[in-house]
Design brief:
With 266 residues, this protein is α/β, with parallel strands linked by helices. The chain contains eleven helices and eight strands. Strands 1-2-4-3-5-6-7-8 form an eight-stranded mixed β-sheet, with helices on both faces.
Amino acid sequence: MNSTVHTHRYKNVDIAYTDSGKGTALVLLHGFLENQLMWQELSLELSKKHRVITIDLLGHGQTACLGYVHSMEDQADMVHDVLLHLRIRKATLIGHSMGGYIALAFAELYPEIIKGIVLLNSTSLADSDERKINRARAIAAVKKDYTAFVRLSIANLFCEENRARLSHEIEQVKEQALKTPLQGIVAALEGMKIRNDREVLLHFTPYPKMLILGFKDPVLVYEDQLEQIEKSNVELISLSGGHMSYLENKAETFEALMHFIKKHKL
């Protein structure tokens, strides 16, 4: 069963979103090269007891580009406008990868709305100098050969031992990623490159927080991510796979999310 996709006009751009179920609001934010379809299975389960909002972020899915750079704050402002339109005053944000960066930007800008945050294969840390250089290289690469860049980028998100097992799922992710316009890809890369460090939010905010990481994540090195949550009350879930826990560790990811939501009565 597919949720009906609605549109909301924001700064002369139509934002695509779904709104299903009833109860306290859960807002699901997809990652780079993804769209709201990534949440389909999870949304179906969560919407049995909650109101679930999924949004195509700027330059992704059925939402057009707003500019040449989509900062995490730009994305957060757009998400806020959608929630205002839907009259949602409190929500828990679940963000995958770039969606996690946007969730944190949202939490910084609109703290009164946040009930809880889950960072799924994401981080509060800003890009290192090396990572910024790699973003610039990625921008050059996608401009040179769009299809090769997208296909390789998706394959590299999965840990090596899962690539054969999940070959069908990987092809489906690639198929969706190839619908992302060139401008959307470049604007997202530019936005991620300049994002602020928001580690402070993990330590000095009152709402519950969870970080879900893959031991073999090729993008976010597991050991490098642990320092940001030291002496914090962030709940850490460590899984065996790579950067795509919602596919590589599907059952465990769902279980962790349900546990977090129930435990904190979100």
